[in-house]
Amino acid sequence: MPTLPKSGIAPDEVLAAMMDARGEDADWRRGRLWSLVYHGGAEHTGTLHRAYELFSAENGLSPKAFPSLARFEAEIIGMLAGLLGDAGARGSMTSCGSESIMLAVKAYRDHARVAKPRIWRPEMLVPSSAHPAFFKAAEYLDVVARPIPVGPDYRAVAGAMADAVNGDTILLVGSAPSFPQGVVDPIDELGRIALDRGVGLHVDACLGTFMLAFLDRIGRSAPRFDFRVPGVTSVSADLHKYGYAAKGASAVLYREPKLLRSQVFVYKDWPGGHFSSPGVTGTRPGGIIAAAYAALLTLGTDGYTRLAREAMELTGTLLRGIRGIPGLHVLGKPDMSVFAFAADGYDIYAVADALEKKGWHMDRQNNPNSLHMIVTPHHGQAVGAFLEDLRAATARARQRPPDESSRRAVLYGITDDAGTG
Ligand SMILES: *Cc1c(COP(=O)(O)O)cnc(C)c1O
C-alpha cells in the first residue's frame, strides 16, 4: 500500500493518473451500465459542478453561519412536498436513501417510546422486496424488521401485512417502486391498514419520486404512492437518482412535524456548545445541497417531464425487445423505468456472462435469478446495440448446460470474504 507522499505531487500528474484508473470501470458514459449512474446530460452536469464549486467549502451544519444553505434546503423540501402531494409536509435533506430510511425508522422508534411506552421491542413490517436499508436501520437502531413475503406479482401483499400487525408494530413499509422488479406496492391498501391499526406507513420512493410524480404529465397512469394516500406518514425521495442531483443527496419528509422532531438529535451539555443535527452526518456538505438546489430549479417541471418521457420511451423499446426474444421474460408488470428479466428454464447468468464479454455491465439478482435494469435518457445511445447483443447472448446461453455458469448474484459493496482492508 502506498504511503502519504512526502512532498505533494503535481495536480496535473495526480489527475491524469486518476483518469487512467477509470480504465477498468463500468463504461457508463457509453450507456453500458444499467444502474448506479443517473446522468442528466453534459450541460446539466456542468450546472451541478458549477453549483457545487460555489459552495464546496460551506457546511450546512450551521444554518446560522450559512443561511443560504438553510434556505436552499428549505426550498428543496418545499418543492418535494409539493411533488409528493402535501405542501405542508416537513423534512430534511440527507446524504443518501439509506440515511433517509434510517432517520425515518429512528423518528418512529423515538416517537413510539413516548406515545406507546408499553412497547418493549418495536417492530416494523417490511415487504421482502424492500431495500436492505430497512434491515440495516433495524440492526443499527435495535428495531425488529419482519420481512413479509411479496406476492406472485412481486408486490407487497396487503392482507399478509395486516395479519402481521401486532401490539409491538410501529411501522409499515411500502416501496414506490421496489428496486428488484420496479413495481409499486399497494400503497392505498397499506394506508388503510395503517390508519385502521394506528401505525405509521413509510413509503420508500427513493427510486421513484422523480419518475412517478411526472408520469401523468406524459399521459401514463401511475399508481398513487405519496401523501395523497391517507395513512402515508412519511416518504423518502432520492435527489441523486432520477432527481439528477449530484451524488450524496436524498430527503425524508413527514406529514406531521412531531415525527421530524423525533428525528433530530439534540445535545445541550457539550462544552463546544448547543449541538443539534437532523441526520447521521455532522458536517453537511454545502456543495451537495447547492447542486441539488440547482438541479431542481434548472430542470423544473418541464425538464423532469422531458426526462421521464425519454426514460419511459426507452423502457418501452427495451421491454418490447426483451419480450420478443425467445427464452426471456420480464418479471411482473414494472410501473416505471426499472425492471428485471429472467430466463425460461436455463441460466440467465450465462446471458450476463456473454453480455459482459461485450462490455456491458449487468446487475444479477436472485430469488428469482434475473438481470436488472434502470433506464435513463442517457441509455438512448445504447438500447439498439444492447438488444442485438442480448438476442445473440440469449440464443447461445439457451444451448449451454445450466451448471457451467460459475458467477453468483451481484453483490453490492464488499463480499463476506473480501474484508474491508
Ligand atoms: C437506492 C435505493 C435506496 C437507498 O438509497 P442509497 O442512496 O443507495 O442509500 C432505497 N430504496 C430504494 C428503492 C432504492 O432504489
Which properties best describe this structure?
single chain, binds pyridoxal-5'-phosphate, alpha/beta, 421 residues, four-stranded antiparallel β-sheet, globular, 12 helices
Query: Helix and strand succession?
Result: HHHEHEHEHEHEHEEHEEHEEHEEH
Shape: globular
Tally the helices: 12
| Widest sheet: strand ordering | 1-7-6-5-4-2-3
- Tell me the number of strands: 13
Q: Structural class given helices, strands, pairing? A: alpha/beta
The stretches of 5 or more residues where confidence is low (pLDDT under 50) are: none
Beta-strand content bin: 5-15%
Bound ligands: pyridoxal-5'-phosphate
Name the average pLDDT: 95
**Cα-to-Cα separation, first versus last residue:** 10 Å
Rg from Cα: 22 Å
The residue fraction in helices comes out at: 25-40%
Outline the biggest β-sheet.
7 strands, mixed
